[in-house]
Amino acid sequence: MSLDGRVIERIKNYTNFWEKDSTKDTDAERDNRLTNYSDVINGYYDGATELYEYGWSQSFHFSRFYKGEAFAQSLARHEHYLAAQMKLKPGMIVLDVGCGVGGPARELVRFADVRIIGLNNNDFQIARARKYTKRAGLEDRLTFQVGDFMKLSEIFGEAKFDAVYAIEATVHAPSFEGVYGEILKVLKPGGTFGVYEWVMTPQWNPSIPYHKEIAHGIEIGDGIPEMRSSTACLEALNAVGFDIKHHEDLADRPDEVPWYYPLEGDILKAQTVWDYVTVWRMSWSGKIVTQGAVKILEWVGIAPKGTYDVGEALKVAAGALVAGGKLKIFTPMFLVISNRPA
C-alpha cells in the first residue's frame, strides 16, 4: 500500500476482472467480480479518483441540464433536488452511502442544514474527503467513515439515521437486495432512503449484441461488477421491506440538453464559457493530453502503476455511456424515494 492509501496491485489488476470482448465475458467472470466486489471497486477508484477530480469535479455524478446552465450549477441542482424529494430538514442525521470525496455531502450540509456521515470503503477517497471538508470548515457537521456498505448495520447499529441517500454508488454492490437491506436496517422507522441509481432501462435487451456491448463497456469503464435493470432495483427495494413512494427516470424527461453532453467532448455544446475546459477534457485531444500526462507520471513514479489502464477504461466508459444515453437503454439517474415502514 502507498502512503496515500492506494494499493498498487489492486490498480494494476483492475482490468483483469473482465474480458475485453463482451461476447467472451462469461457468467464465471461476472461471478468472480461479484465475489471480489471490494477489489473491483477499490482497484477502480484507486486509479480513477484523481482523474475524476481533474476531468469532472469533486461530485462524481451526472445531472440534468437546462439551456445555458453551468456545469457546476447543474451538479449542485441535482443534489438539491434529491434533498428536496427526500424532505431533508435541519438537524437530521443523514448517511451518505458511497460518498466519494465528499462533494455532494458538503453541498447538502450547506443546503439542507443537516448533519452527514459519509461512508465508503476506499481509504484514498476518505482521506481526500476529510481534507476537503476541513478546508471548507464543515468538520463539525460532516464526518467520514471507511467501511463496506454491505455491512452498515455492523458499523453503525440499527435504526440510527433519519435519512440515507446514495448518489450513483449502490450500483457497485454485489446485489441490490444486500445493500438496500443494510440501508433499511440503519434507517429509523419512518426514515427516508433516496437514491440516484445506475440501471438499464426497459428499452435494454441483453439479447441484442450491441445492447450487451454497451452494458459491458459501462461495467468495465466504471468499476461495476454487473449492470442491472430498473425493474431489478424496484423489486429489490420491495423485497427487503421498503415502502416505495416515488420512482422516475429523470433522464427520460424531454430535456433540450442531454445529461451526457459533457462526455461527447464537443466544445461547441458547452453551455457557458467556463465549461469549455470541462468539455474539452472529454474531447479526443483532451483525452490524448490527459493520458499522455498520466503515462509520464506513471513512468516517473508519481502516479501509481495501472492508472493509465484505468484511464483507458474510462474512455471506454464514456463511449458506452453516451451510446446508452442516446438509445435510452441506460440511465444514471433512476430516482427512487422510499421509506422504512414505521
TrEMBL record:
<dbReference type="Pfam" id="PF08498">
    <property type="entry name" value="Sterol_MT_C"/>
</dbReference>
<keyword id="KW-0949">S-adenosyl-L-methionine</keyword>
<dbReference type="GO" id="GO:0006696">
    <property type="term" value="P:ergosterol biosynthetic process"/>
</dbReference>
<feature type="domain" description="SAM-dependent methyltransferase Erg6/SMT-type">
    <location>
        <begin position="44"/>
        <end position="341"/>
    </location>
</feature>
<dbReference type="GO" id="GO:0032259">
    <property type="term" value="P:methylation"/>
</dbReference>
<protein>
    <submittedName>
        <fullName>Delta-sterol C-methyltransferase</fullName>
    </submittedName>
</protein>
<dbReference type="InterPro" id="IPR025714">
    <property type="entry name" value="Methyltranfer_dom"/>
</dbReference>
<keyword id="KW-0489">Methyltransferase</keyword>
<dbReference type="InterPro" id="IPR013705">
    <property type="entry name" value="Sterol_MeTrfase_C"/>
</dbReference>
<dbReference type="Pfam" id="PF13847">
    <property type="entry name" value="Methyltransf_31"/>
</dbReference>
<dbReference type="GO" id="GO:0003838">
    <property type="term" value="F:sterol 24-C-methyltransferase activity"/>
</dbReference>
<dbReference type="InterPro" id="IPR050447">
    <property type="entry name" value="Erg6_SMT_methyltransf"/>
</dbReference>
<comment type="similarity">
    <text>Belongs to the class I-like SAM-binding methyltransferase superfamily. Erg6/SMT family.</text>
</comment>
<dbReference type="InterPro" id="IPR030384">
    <property type="entry name" value="MeTrfase_SMT"/>
</dbReference>
<keyword id="KW-0808">Transferase</keyword>
<dbReference type="InterPro" id="IPR029063">
    <property type="entry name" value="SAM-dependent_MTases_sf"/>
</dbReference>
<dbReference type="GO" id="GO:0005783">
    <property type="term" value="C:endoplasmic reticulum"/>
</dbReference>
